[in-house]
Design a protein that fits this description.
Structural class: alpha/beta
Largest sheet: 9 strands, mixed
């Protein structure tokens, strides 16, 4: 039996902050006991001891929205499952939920199998999958039932990207009706893609080709309208709804209104919307292309509504939508035409640290930090209490966190496979020091000790908020 004891730290979960030692045996948490207690003292014989004095002991992060190796815009996201999960571990994330993609004209199973093949024996941390539906028909609707039974319990649809991922309202309604019957959770990219395509063509025709126009054509009102429409379709179908990467105050208002009415509607935002803005998209010399993602970055005044939504639980989860493309040779595909810039930002390594900085800045409490980054994503996607907390029986996915270490975010020091940082030069306080994944040390005092293949695929239950 392998045994590890974590001593002297402040254990922080979504529910509690307690000064306790943690006993890990064979990859699971088996007990917590007060510092200096007889029980805790008896654990150390024959065990590996990690001294966490002056540190936080927190659950490993659960990033429920990543895109490793995603094909997009004639290229692929630059992080593989090997490089992306290693970077996640450096940032204190110990579980990702990535998106398997159904190609139009193909079966869901074919897409899921392809993603299993990409990830198999490559991951340093545990992983699970959502399923992107890009072709809703009678066959794929039936396939949804089987996927739920085997632990792929959430399905993403797009109101954007006509000709690629787009589903019309009828297809969305049918998928929602199926989910209402099988227990699945519908995830929605809520932007009016049909209208956006008109505005894209008009902007290009007027010679407006710089990256900042990506944000100008993907208007706030078209995110709010699509969010409203998705909520109403879910009401008709009797289905729950999870809206991904919410970026705009008006979209938050739609979610808040639905939740105030008691509807099973949930929302996610991402660090880029909390810390970046259209100022970044407008950076000169094509530097703005680094910040092209969808939904787009918004004017800075939207940030207050997003922080407020996180405090009031109108937004429940912060994920990254990690989908990196290098500036050189990938983002540059859109020189002279913003609509050809691959959409996506790197961030899987930065999320936990940025949210700790938000605690110091007064936006969040420490427990809310853990709630939105660990516990609630685990509950939302059927992984709790195996993931997302530190409690007897939970997987020993544990981070020793130094709340006072200073760091400067930079592409020169990050571990994501991308040639720029979206947060270049940002100074923050707090840093991951040591990471355990199922009891195995994968980061030891800022030295990576993990390995590709340690991470296991985790079948998921259904949403635990329903």
């Amino acid at each position: 039996m392998s045994r590890t004891v974590i001593t002297g730290g402040l254990v922080i979960t979504a529910a509690d902050e307690i000064h306790a030692d943690v006993l890990v045996e064979d990859g699971r948490v088996t007990a917590l006991a007060a510092h200096g207690s007889d029980a805790a003292a008896g654990w150390q014989a024959g065990a590996a001891v990690i001294d966490a004095t002056g540190r936080y002991v927190i659950p490993g992060g659960v990033d429920a929205h990543t895109h490793m190796e995603l094909p997009f815009g004639g290229t692929f996201a630059s992080d593989t499952f090997e490089t992306g999960t290693r970077a996640a571990a450096w940032g204190g994330t110990t579980t990702i939920v990535d998106f398997a993609v159904q190609k139009q004209g193909s079966a869901l199973r074919e897409g899921l199998d392809a993603w299993h093949a990409k990830a198999d024996a490559q991951c340093s941390i545990d992983y699970a999958f959502h399923m992107i539906l890009s072709d809703v028909n009678e066959h794929t609707l039936k396939e949804m039932d089987g996927l739920v039974e085997e632990g792929v319990t959430s399905f993403k649809l797009f109101m954007a990207y006509p000709g690629v991922f787009y589903s019309d309202d009828g297809q969305i309604l049918r998928a929602m009706q199926r989910a209402a019957g099988n227990g699945g959770l519908i995830m929605m990219h809520a932007e009016n893609g049909i209208a956006i395509d008109v505005l894209v063509e008009q902007a290009r025709g007027a010679g407006k080709t710089d990256p900042r126009y990506h944000g100008e054509v993907r208007k706030v009102l078209l995110e709010a309208e699509a969010t409203h429409r998705a909520i109403q379709l879910a009401r008709v179908a009797g289905s729950p709804l999870y809206v991904v990467h919410v970026s705009a105050e008006e979209a938050v208002a739609e979610l808040a209104q639905a939740r105030d009415a008691g509807l099973p509607v949930f929302g996610e935002t991402c660090p880029q919307y909390l810390f970046l803005s259209t100022d970044n998209l407008a950076e000169p010399d094509f530097e703005g292309s680094k910040y092209v993602c969808s939904t787009p970055l918004r004017p800075r005044e939207h940030q207050a509504a997003l922080w407020r939504g996180l405090r009031t639980d109108d937004l429940q989860v912060v994920s990254t939508d990690h989908c990196p493309f290098c500036f050189k040779d990938q983002k540059e595909l859109g020189r002279g035409d913003f609509s050809k810039i691959p959409n996506g930002l790197p961030g899987v390594e930065n999320r936990m640290d940025l949210l700790h900085q938000a605690v110091l800045d007064g936006h969040l409490t420490r427990r809310r930090w853990i709630d939105i980054a660990c516990a609630t994503p685990a509950r939302m996607f059927g992984l709790y209490p195996r993931k997302g907390t530190i409690a007897p029986g939970s997987d020993a996915d544990i981070v020793i966190y130094d709340p006072e270490a200073r760091q400067t975010l930079s592409a020169a020091t990050h571990h994501m496979n991308v040639d720029y940082s979206a947060y270049e030069g940002k100074e923050i306080t707090g840093r991951v020091e040591t990471v355990l994944s199922r009891g195995e040390t994968v980061l030891d005092g800022r030295e990576f000790t993990g390995r590709a293949g340690h991470g296991q695929y985790v079948p998921r239950g259904t949403c635990q908020f329903l």
